[in-house]
Amino acid sequence: MATYHIETYGCSSNRGESREIERALRDGGHRPADGPEDADVAILNTCTVVEKTERNMLRRAEELQETAADLVVTGCMALAQGEAFEEAGIDAEILHWDEVPTYALNGECPTTTPDAEPVLDGVVGLLPIARGCMSNCSYCITKFATGRVDSPPVEENVEKARALVHAGAKEIRVTGQDTGVYGWDDGDRKLPELLDRICDIDGEFRVRLGMANPGGIHGIHEELADVFAANEELYDFIHAPVQSGSDDVLEDMRRQHRVEKFREVVATFDDRLDHWTLSTDFIVGFPTEDETDHERSMDLLAEVRPEKINVTRFSKRPGTDAADMKGLGGTVKKERSKAMSELKMEVVGEAYESMVGETFEVLVVEEGTGDSVKCRDSAYRQIIVRNATERGVDVGDFLDVEVTGHNTVYAFGDPVDEAGSGPAGVEDAGAVLGDD
């Protein structure tokens, strides 16, 4: 498995985010390195409280890029002053913290332990529905750890979901290496039935479907979209990693889909749902990707305009078939990654900007930085509510918020008062926004 090294600077919020990153990497089968010099990827979680701190962050980034094979910079300075790293000549991927695990996992499926059981973390319940996948991707190392898909019965997973709800879960995250192939080992595609039955559980909660490869869900995409349309408990959100806009590259990756299947999945959800969030992944710089292939990926991204996009620079995993391919130069991968990341920010920023001035019902899922909370609307878009304590907003609450601004990859919102006359505490929220 790949190795990682993570360093964290700044506040307790940064430390909490680093713990989440590390947990996701461990769940994905990665292990910590003895130091940055032994790591496949080094992760620098930055602080930007004063100018001296910024200089220290740049210096440490320079040191890390000389030792680790790949460098990711996240945290406050990455988001507020990401251009400073490029100006300093630092070759790093600048990411929001919750994008780091997907990037570091190199487009591979997540890995769970053989005895994976549901976990309640705050008001979020994690429900692994199966282990393993049906794919044989040429770049993926996790298949060696997980094997073929092994799906427990629907009733067993429903009972686990019911137990999570009774324990206080307000959001159930349905997880697996590839949720779309749940039930394939029994010769039956059971995901729509499972989601339908989870949504029938008594209680007020939301359900988020985890990663489902386009090849896995294509055969059930119409039935699945109907289940989404019929159940308000389901977030209108799917994570379907296309990985490339070129059929030639997809064939070399040994992906089980081609671009047209991905388009058909997207079109079906567009037809069934008024608004939904598409999350997808692209691997940039696969060994056989030429400039035309890259342009096809760029064109596909611009065409389908996902609201959440993970861009990963290809890196070799030992023991995989792709590791034996002659790779592209680092400069080529860097340039293509930069171009796609810039387009990504344009597309995602446009989506969040369109939310400003609109009101959405949200679920408060967890605490954020300072006195803020992180909320999700019906399409799983992230909305931050600040000054939560004085506004009486707690984790687990359902409330209406008006979106007042955005920061490219998430929005800011104010609670709407019960009388419906407008956002509560607008003056204070406006003052805070004015400080950004």
Task: Provide an overview of this structure.
Keywords: 4Fe-4S, Iron, Iron-sulfur, Metal-binding, S-adenosyl-L-methionine, Transferase, tRNA processing. The protein is of the alpha/beta class. Strands 2-1-3-4-5 form a 5-stranded parallel beta sheet, with helices on both faces. A 5-stranded mixed beta barrel has the order 13-14-15-17-16. The protein folds into 3 domains: 3-97, Rossmann fold; 119-353, tm_1862 like domain (pyruvate-formate lyase- activating enzyme), CATH 3.80.30; 359-434, OB fold (Dihydrolipoamide Acetyltransferase, E2P), CATH 2.40.50.140. 35% of the residues lie in helices and 20% in strands. The two termini are 40 Å apart. Mean pLDDT is 87; it is low at 425-436. The chain has 15 helices and 17 strands. Helix 7 runs parallel beside helix 8 (191-199). The longest helix has 24 residues, at 330-353.
Which secondary-structure class do the elements indicate?
alpha/beta
Shape: globular
Helical content class: 25-40%
In total, how many domains does the architecture comprise? 3
Region (Disordered): 416-436
Keywords: 4Fe-4S, Iron, Iron-sulfur, Metal-binding, S-adenosyl-L-methionine, Transferase, tRNA processing
Organism: Halorubrum rutilum
Function: Catalyzes the methylthiolation of N6-threonylcarbamoyladenosine (t(6)A), leading to the formation of 2-methylthio-N6-threonylcarbamoyladenosine (ms(2)t(6)A) at position 37 in tRNAs that read codons beginning with adenine.
Any chance you could write out the topology, listing elements then pairs?
Layout: E1 3-8, H1 12-27, E2 31-32, E3 41-46, H2 51-65, E4 71-75, H3 76-80, H4 83-87, E5 93-94, H5 100-104, E6 119-121, E7 124-128, H6 143-146, H7 154-166, E8 171-175, H8 191-199, E9 206-209, H9 214-217, H10 221-230, E10 237-239, H11 247-253, H12 259-272, E11 277-284, H13 291-304, E12 308-313, H14 330-353, E13 359-367, E14 372-376, E15 382-386, E16 398-406, E17 411-415, H15 426-434
Parallel strand pairs: 1-2, 1-3, 3-4, 4-5, 7-8, 8-9, 10-11, 11-12, 15-17
Antiparallel strand pairs: 6-7, 13-14, 13-16, 14-15, 16-17
EC number: 2.8.4.5
Keywords: 4Fe-4S, Iron, Iron-sulfur, Metal-binding, S-adenosyl-L-methionine, Transferase, tRNA processing
Function: Catalyzes the methylthiolation of N6-threonylcarbamoyladenosine (t(6)A), leading to the formation of 2-methylthio-N6-threonylcarbamoyladenosine (ms(2)t(6)A) at position 37 in tRNAs that read codons beginning with adenine.
